[in-house]
Amino acid sequence: MSIKITKKERESSSAFLYRVGQVIQKSGVLLEAKKHRFNDPKPNKASIKKSALHKQSVLQEIKRKKRQGIPFKK
Fold first, then answer.
1. Are residues 50 and 70 in the same domain?
2. 21 domain residue, yes or no
3. Are residues 35 and 52 in the same domain?
4. What is the pTM of this model?
5. Percent of the chain having pLDDT more than 90?
6. Which residue range forms the structural domain that includes residue 22?
7. pLDDT at 68
8. Integer CA distances (angstroms), 51 to 22, 29, 44, 62, in order
9. Are 30 and 40 in contact (CB under 8 A)?
10. What's the domain count of the chain?
11. pLDDT tier at 1 (50, 70, 90 boundaries)?
12. Which among 8, 29, 33, 47 could bridge 43 via Cys, Cβ 3.0 to 4.6 Å?
């Protein structure tokens, strides 16, 4: 949704900024943007499975290195 606002003739910049703020607030653009700001999409099954498999392989590698006495980086 786009809003087009032009400065009126003989309108001060502070009055123009105030009017822009009011138009944006009334249109609901700002409210809609705030709603979707922190909305993260849910991961799909494939990415969850891939993440779990990666975690298992990393943990197995750490166990193997501990048994052998090799230092590992976290």
1. yes
2. yes
3. no
4. 0.47
5. 65
6. 10-39
7. 92
8. 46, 36, 11, 17
9. no
10. 2
11. low
12. 47
